[in-house]
Amino acid sequence: MSEKDIIINRVANSPLITFDLEEFYHPGERVLIDIGDQLYQGLILKEKDFRAWVRDMDWSIYENQNVAIWCSADAIIPTWAYMLVATRISPYAHMVVFGTLEDLEKALYQNALSSMNIEKFRDKKIVIKGCGKYQVPDSAYVEITRLLTPVASSIMYGEACSTVPLYKRPK
What pLDDT was estimated at residue 78? Predict the structure, then answer.
């Protein structure tokens, strides 16, 4: 076999580092607590009844889960109501946020990315991997791009064999 017949994997030999956001996916269950279910006639939060519900609820069922607290009803909910639920669920849940399950997913990624050591990517050529088995929020792609831009020499999106250039540090 001659040298010209040898197949060289240029992608494997390239200096590109693939950054996979799916590695930051938190595997815990996602749960939505809808305060709207506790409203009188679906419209009014009665403090006494609400406090009784919070007091009597077994919050340990949310052990190690990721919880979003919100209200689906078109009602004015006092801020303290969400805060009261958070005081009871926080000792059990992995993460608690105000908002939808989408807001929860954004917060999980934000939390994971904020604790990352970005310096290991200094002066590196990075490919931020696109598609995968989990739905990664667009906000996570924006956040990792924001974090990497000051340190990376270049940032691309996609797969190593087919990338979209996003950033190249000026010389």
Answer: 96
d(CA 118, CA 149): 10
Split at pLDDT 50, 70, 90, the class of 3 is low
Q: Is the pLDDT of residue 9 over 60?
A: no
Q: For the chain, what's the residue count?
A: 171
Token pair belonging to 46? 């009665």
Question: CA-based angle 106:109:115, to the nearest 5?
Answer: 140
Helical pair 47-56 and 79-89, crossing angle rounded to 10 deg: 10
Report residue 80 as tokens: 């303290």
Interatomic CA distance for residues 103 and 28, integer angstroms: 15
What three-state secondary structure class fits 100?
A: coil
Read off the DSSP letter of residue 55: H
Q: How confident is the model at residue 14 (pLDDT cuts 50, 70, 90)?
A: low
**Pick from 121, 130, 111: nearest CA to 150:** 121
Sequence spans of domains, the chain: 3-26+107-168, 30-93
Going by C-alpha positions, the residue among 121, 114, 107 that lies closest to residue 15 is 121
CB atoms within 10 A of CB 115: 7
